Amino acid sequence: MNSIANNTMTNTEHIYVVGDLQGCCDQFNELHAQILLQDPDATLFIAGDLVNRGPQSLPTLRKLVALGDRANSVLGNHDLNLLGIAYGAHRPHHDAYLRPILDAPDREQLLDWLRHRPLAFQIEQHLIIHAGVLPSWTVEQTLDYAREVEQMLQGPNYVDFLRVMYSNQPSVWSTTLTGMDRLRCIVNVLTRLRFCTISDEMEFDSKEGLNKTPPGFAPWFSHPRLSASSTLIYGHWSAIGLQLQPNLIGLDTGCVWGGKLTAMRLSDHQLFQVDCPPHQEIN
Fold first, then answer.
1. Which of 60, 153, 170, 219 could hold 25 in an S-S bridge, CB 3.0 to 4.6 Å?
2. How wide is the angle at C-alpha 244 spanned by C-alphas 242 and 247, nearest 5°?
3. Rounded CA gap, 205 and 172, in Å?
4. CATH assignment at residue 77
5. Residue 190: which domain range?
């Protein structure tokens, strides 16, 4: 039995998880066509960061919305940033990548769809998140914490949260956190995390590969974690590329940087990939 409302599904058949799109719609179309040749009933689940950096954020969002029940996504940091800009909660330094969405006649439909995406989603023994989870979080806690933020984003006061979403603080998770600090910390874990300590302290300045690990920290997935009973599937970290480890799958293979766009069929973990050209910065 599947429960989209509870962010869980119990059947991996025809489910394909796709790494960060970042507005690379041509490559997304190519990958989708490749998958459909083998499985006309395929349903796509994106690991977040649907928009930004690539030149086709608007058609990317439109395609996902048009696919209806055949597509879903967890929210990534770039998706939340789009919401913050669109609703006046954040003033961008550079929004050329997102301007076509902001000016689109169907922007409200697209933004409403995006605002109602989950932050974590469980499919059988797979947990999909954009960035990571902390060592102390179980799968059940991760889903519960994600729902706290989702209720705010999908409720009437979502702009209030978007206004205070941008901060690295608090940098240490505690179950005693309350209010906006608690919600911000949950968002930062699920959409921005790369490095942390075993005691759930996070570091957000370092964005490079494992050879640039900040002193005193380690990649979030290198610690013993209470979520190890499930296979965690994430995107976000193109600098370390494809990761295929026991109970851990990283699918951000740097499409927007000239790498590949990668999908994985959940039923047998078969990979599907297309090559991607590097995209020029929009002025």
1. 60
2. 135
3. 15
4. 3.60.21.10
5. 15-275
